[in-house]
Design a protein that fits this description.
Largest sheet: 7 strands, mixed
Strand order of the largest sheet: 7-6-2-1-3-4-8
Order of helices and strands: EHEHEHEHEEEHEHHEH
Oligomer: single chain
Helix content: 25-40%
Shape: elongated
Radius of gyration: 18 Å
Length: 205
């Protein structure tokens, strides 16, 4: 079973080394739409793959980091990187190019890591990210699967290689969100009181 949650943000970037002259030399922005698709082979006690409400916490915060921010490749010209940090309160430093393809990989990577470190409380089982689709324009998107995240030829993704501006971190529900993720600390979902007893609930107790 799969479910889909849509997220939206506005973001600016330069995509170095690409074919388009406009895109590789000039700062420009897009209205992104991100489709996060989760899957599981079993439903929780509410008979859901994963409650949509739970996606409004850490995963929503980490994706919202992109909103009204400028993203840059940490290998870019140091003067450009310094200017981004100086003139924008919201920025993200990436170990890969800020392309739609890499946005889909990065968001998959972050969401999967958060799920792995989440202590489930409502009978959820084997919930994982199936795919992330990053719509950059009305006519173009990039879609990422697990194999793409693990493919070092597309750029290695390591938690410690990302950096968020102070303003971005301050606007998370928990300003220590990413530090906790790096440290491997648990994210705990809220406890749930059973209103209807089912066979599945009884077998879990």
């Amino acid at each position: 079973m799969r479910i889909r949650k849509l997220f939206k943000f506005e973001n600016a970037h330069i995509v170095r080394n690409c074919s388009s002259e406009r895109c590789k030399h000039s700062i420009h922005g897009h209205s992104y739409q991100i489709e996060l698709i989760l899957e599981a082979t079993r439903l929780d006690h509410g008979q859901m793959v994963y409650d949509f409400g739970l996606l409004k916490s850490s995963i929503k915060d980490i994706i919202d980091s992109f909103d009204h921010a400028i993203c840059f490749w940490n290998k870019d010209d140091p003067e450009y990187v310094a200017a981004c940090k100086k003139f924008s309160a919201r920025w993200i430093s990436l170990p890969v190019s800020p392309s739609a393809e890499q946005f889909s990989r990065v968001i998959f990577f972050w969401a999967q890591e958060i799920l792995r470190q989440t202590q489930m409380q409502n009978g959820e089982a084997d919930v994982s990210v199936y795919s992330v689709i990053a719509h950059e324009t009305a006519t173009g998107y990039a879609q990422c699967f697990a194999d793409d995240v693990a493919n070092d030829q597309m750029g290695q993704l390591v938690l410690e290689d990302f950096e968020f501006s102070e303003q971005v971190r301050a606007e998370w529900t928990d300003s220590e969100l990413y530090a906790k993720l790096i440290r491997g600390e648990s994210f705990t979902n809220p406890t749930v009181t059973m209103q209807v007893q089912t066979e599945q609930v009884q077998s879990d107790v």
